[in-house]
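Long-time lurker, first post. I've been practising inverse folding by hand and with some scripts of my own, and I keep getting stuck on stretches where the structure tokens seem ambiguous. Below is the full token string for one chain I'm working on. Before anyone asks, I'm not after the true native sequence, just a reasonable design that respects the backbone. If someone could post their per-position residues I'd love to compare against what I wrote down in my notebook.
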């Protein structure tokens, strides 16, 4: 995850939610967003 830019992480998160990927993967992305203190105002899940 550390190789993803903040913007790319946000895009990957939204894409994962849109595609309804594995819940554990989406949770991993959410944890990384929280770790980086990035707030996503619209959770689609």
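-- Answer (accepted) --
I ran through it position by position. Result:
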């Amino acid at each position: 995850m550390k190789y993803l830019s903040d913007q790319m992480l946000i895009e990957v998160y939204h894409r994962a939610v849109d595609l309804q990927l594995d819940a554990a993967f989406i949770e991993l992305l959410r944890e990384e967003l929280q770790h980086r203190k990035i707030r996503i105002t619209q959770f689609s899940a």
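A couple of notes from the structure itself: The radius of gyration is 10 Å. Residues 1-45 form one domain. Happy to go over any region you disagree with.
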